[in-house]
Design brief:
89 residues, alpha+beta
Length: 89
């Protein structure tokens, strides 16, 4: 996915949102029950920083480090639609 995003520059914007939405789309089409999570973290005086990441239905994340350690989840996109943090069931 990273190689495709790099090849698409400058038309394709790099970052977690592009990677997350694209990966979510293709993995869902393959039949995997992935969820796209959105979170925020406070970065000193710079203000909040956002990030999105994919998780599998069993809770495993698809990144080298668990993003939930650094970011507070605020919303999640799954096959059931969008749910706010604390409401996913």
């Amino acid at each position: 996915m990273e190689r495709v995003i790099r090849a698409g520059r400058p038309l394709v914007r790099p970052g977690c949102l592009t990677r997350g939405i694209t990966s979510y789309y293709f993995l869902r089409r393959k039949g995997l029950n992935v969820e796209l999570c959105f979170g925020l973290a406070q970065q000193r005086e710079d203000g909040p920083v956002g990030h999105c990441w994919l998780t599998l239905e069993d809770g495993r994340h698809l990144e080298s480090e668990d993003p939930a350690r650094a970011f507070v989840e605020i919303a999640r996109l799954s096959s059931r639609g969008v749910t706010a943090a604390g409401m996913a069931a």
